[in-house]
């Protein structure tokens, strides 16, 4: 028990360090661009919420070490917190596009690094996979909010689709069934961040940005639609019992007697 408490204390220290680094990044951004109260408040709420949720998750997971892969994901979440603060601040003043794009680009480039690190170090875990997925989803949501100020509220469909899927699963439990691995699904998910970043950078003409984001949304609708259709068919298909299974069960029962 004492050893478990030691492991838990170390894990909690790492999450606390992450929150401290997040606040440091906010301070650097604030001094660089004169971030207003909305940006500061949003960034601090993100830092506190991440610390609270992650601390609870690592406590329940009973991991012995936070692991290098989770540290990479934590670093990405810190960058996402900075992007979140900048996007919130953009509603009060002109956004620092270059800084926002730079933080987002690094966060996107690091996506996938944590998975490779986990596999190479043998530290893959359910917590790490969920942490990585939530960081990705929230970054897409924040970028959707930012791009929606330029192209319209329909862009929020990109960031909100995953959360709508999770909410729908509460009323339709068949949506919670595990999906088979899919390279297409991973590709579509990665494309969303890239397309939103391109549009958010404002380097291309507005019609081009509109086309890029529409293509991203179309691919996302296709991906979710395909997965929902697969889950629906699977839920309606009764599990098939091999013909030889009853005979095997009978033989086991006779042997047990």
Can you offer a commentary on this structure?
The protein has 257 residues and is mostly helical. The protein has one domain: Four Helix Bundle (Hemerythrin (Met), subunit A) (Up-down Bundle). It is globular, with a radius of gyration of 22 Å. The C terminus is likely disordered. It comes from Streptomyces capoamus. It holds the Pfam family CDP-OH_P_transf. This is Membrane protein.
Span from first to last CA? 43 Å
CATH fold description: Four Helix Bundle (Hemerythrin (Met), subunit A)
Contiguous runs where pLDDT drops below 50 for at least 5 residues: 241-257
Secondary structure tally: strands: 0
Instruction: Report helical residue fraction.
Output: over 70%
Instruction: Note the run of SSEs as H and E.
Output: HHHHHHHHHH
Number of domains: 1
Please report the first level of CATH classification, the CATH class: Mainly Alpha
Give me the secondary-structure category: mainly alpha
The major β-sheet equals: none
Summarize, please.
With 257 residues, the protein is mainly α.
Key features?
mainly alpha; 0% strand; CDP_ALCOHOL_P_TRANSF_CS; CDP-OH_P_trans; globular; transmembrane; disordered C terminus; single chain; membrane; Four Helix Bundle (Hemerythrin (Met), subunit A); 257 residues; 10 helices
């Amino acid at each position: 028990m004492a050893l478990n408490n030691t492991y838990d204390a170390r894990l909690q220290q790492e999450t606390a360090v992450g929150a401290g680094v997040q606040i440091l990044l906010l301070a650097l951004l604030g001094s660089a661009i004169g971030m207003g109260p909305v940006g500061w408040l949003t960034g601090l709420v993100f830092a506190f919420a991440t610390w609270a949720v992650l601390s609870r998750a690592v406590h329940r997971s009973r991991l012995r070490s936070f692991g290098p892969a989770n540290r990479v994901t934590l670093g990405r979440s810190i960058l996402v917190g900075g992007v979140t603060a900048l996007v919130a601040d953009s509603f009060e003043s002109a956004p620092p596009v270059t800084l926002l794009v730079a933080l987002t680009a690094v966060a996107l480039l690091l996506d996938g690094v944590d998975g490779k690190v986990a596999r190479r170090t043998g530290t893959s875990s359910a917590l790490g996979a969920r942490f990585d997925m939530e960081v990705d989803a929230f970054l897409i949501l924040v970028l959707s909010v930012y791009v929606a100020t330029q192209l319209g509220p329909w862009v929020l469909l990109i960031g909100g689709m995953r959360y709508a899927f999770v909410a729908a699963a509460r009323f339709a439990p068949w949506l919670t069934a595990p999906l088979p691995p899919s390279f297409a699904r991973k590709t579509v998910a990665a494309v969303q961040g890239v397309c939103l970043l391109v549009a958010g950078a404002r380097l291309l003409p507005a019609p081009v940005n509109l086309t890029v984001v529409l293509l991203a949304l179309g691919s996302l609708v296709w991906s979710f639609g395909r997965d929902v259709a697969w889950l629906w068919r699977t839920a309606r298909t009764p599990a098939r019992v091999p013909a030889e299974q009853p005979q095997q069960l009978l033989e086991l029962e006779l042997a047990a007697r």
